[in-house]
Amino acid sequence: MGGRLTRVFRTFNLESRARREISKEKPTPAPRHPTSRLDELADHPEIQEEIYRKDDRLLTLLKDVYVESRDPPAQVKVGGGEHLPCKQEEKRLTKLGNLGDLDVKKVPKGKISIVEALTLLNNHKLHPQIWTAEKIAVEYSLELKEVNSLLEFFIPFAVQEFPKETKKAI
């Protein structure tokens, strides 16, 4: 309903408003700076003559300049076919794999996947005596300092369901 009403106001007297805008005088452009006009050069033939005249003194100085360039000698690589061994990251297999093809199969040592992080945080929360920071560091090939920081600063969510009686009281 509101769309029809606004459309009526938009289209009201549209043709006369358009004609009024079209019939307005166009604004004149701003005047240009006098140095930017190239027309003035054509008015002064002596300037044109000065531009195209050859200066013999400058030509002789230019002819005296001699530039000699040499490429540096090409260096031959020793052992052309050999490649330097690149550092291979040690990888370990992940502990979990519930998602099939979407799971990360191998993780570099010193890192963990998101699923593993959530699992170890949950295990530590449920059984802190069994899943200590030292055991987690050994199990997942992590540094003890990083595991302590992980357990201190990251806490998994706890889902709490309220019984129906307490819902009414709230």
From TrEMBL:
Source species, domain of life: Eukaryota
Coiled-coil positions: none
InterPro entries found in the cross-reference section: NDUFAF4
Annotated segments matching region Disordered: 18-44
GO CC terms: mitochondrion
Basic and acidic residues bias spans: 18-27
UniProt-listed GO biological process terms: mitochondrial respiratory chain complex I assembly
PANTHER family linked to this entry: NADH DEHYDROGENASE [UBIQUINONE] 1 ALPHA SUBCOMPLEX ASSEMBLY FACTOR 4, UPF0240 PROTEIN
Family: Belongs to the NDUFAF4 family.
Quaternary structure, from the entry: Binds calmodulin. Interacts with NDUFAF3.
Protein's name in the database: NADH dehydrogenase [ubiquinone] 1 alpha subcomplex assembly factor 4
Native source organism of the sequence: Chroicocephalus maculipennis
